[in-house]
Amino acid sequence: MDDDSLLPISALQHLVFCRRQCALIHLEGAWSDNRLTAEGNLLHERVESGATTTRGALRVYRAMPLVSRRLGLVGKSDIVEIHRAEDGGEQPFPVEYKRGVVKEHDADRVQLCAQALCLEEMLGTPIPAGALFYGQPRRREPVVFTPALRAETEALATELHRLIEQEIVPPPEPGPKCRSCSLEEICRPFLAERKSAAAWLERARAEG
User: What SS3 class is residue 85?
Assistant: First the structure.
């Protein structure tokens, strides 16, 4: 796949959270910060220096460029740790930083798995696991890249390319998650509901 067709790894996270949000960001270039995104940006600034550090046998790469031409994805990692494997070789271990707490949906795990799939393609070595570091509990949550998670990530990469190629922004699907989305004022997900309610009241008055 050529460079112009590559899509951001982060778009997978947006896709899992909300297809409309993904299209607004990656088709229409819409963006707006709120308190949650500002906290996330601050957390990432601390790890995106691009510096490489070594502590004993452990090497830590920050903001490592990533690409998978098979999946058509491009981006960069927050951190890739290189551990000493049991056989004496090297074992990459990706770590993604996130604000808040562990999510019920798979958006963060899919994003991390996509990073691992990129690293496997780039380095030619299997990567069985990584971790998500959440800012609120300030601890790592291990993520095992199971066959099911890998299959889900690859299917979502295909869906992402299909969504972008169609160039159609999906309609809103209002729900509780909309209240935490920085694009709520742009998306206006509850507008259709308010219009429907107003139309119903108008019809009720007319019929009464």
Answer: coil
Look at 105 and 72; give whichever has higher pLDDT.
72
Under DSSP, the state recorded for 145 is: -
Tell me the two tokens of residue 7.
């899509």
Beta strands in the chain (DSSP E): 7-8, 52-55, 58-62, 65-68, 73-76, 79-84, 90-98, 129-134, 139-144
- Of 139-148, 183-192, 197-206, which range is least confident? 197-206
DSSP class of residue 4 equals G
CA distance 51 to 145: 26
User: What does the alpha-carbon distance between residue 102 and residue 124 come to, in Å, rounded to a whole number?
Assistant: 30
Question: For 146-177, how does the pLDDT look when each residue is reduced to its tens digit (9 = 90+)?
Answer: 999 999 999 999 999 999 999 999 988 888 88
Q: Which residue type, as a one-letter code, is found at position 153?
A: T
Nearest-10 crossing angle of helices 10-17, 107-123: 150
Q: Give all domains of the chain, ordered by start, each with its CATH number.
A: 3-172 (3.90.320.10)
